[in-house]
Amino acid sequence: MTDPIARLAMVTLDCRDAEASARFWSEVLGWELVAAGDGYAMLSGPDHALGFGSLPDHEPPSWPDEHGRKQFHFDLAVDDLAEAEERCAALGASAVAPQPGETWRVMVDPGGHPFCLTKAENWG
Which of 16, 56, 77, 113 satisfies CB 3.0 to 4.6 Å to 120 for a cystine? Predict the structure, then answer.
């Protein structure tokens, strides 16, 4: 392995409402909302940070998209798939249809970003 040039400090998501997206992900991940205001919000987790930037004309990626323009997504390991889906939905996420498999659920956060819930046992 070579010496890295940099280390990942944070991933930032563009969205229409930074604070609303940050509050959603704060609840899902259990991370602290450490900054919010002026079109920006940031969560702090155990080893990383997650940022959100408001863009009034933001167009979220579509899912499914035959051209592969989802940009990126989170894969989140959960112990109970149904419970995690229900809790995310209560926070404003929605499940996409049709679902591509039995061991994970594709959902879209309130800002329109797709993410997957998957059984933790699938990650070894």
Answer: 77
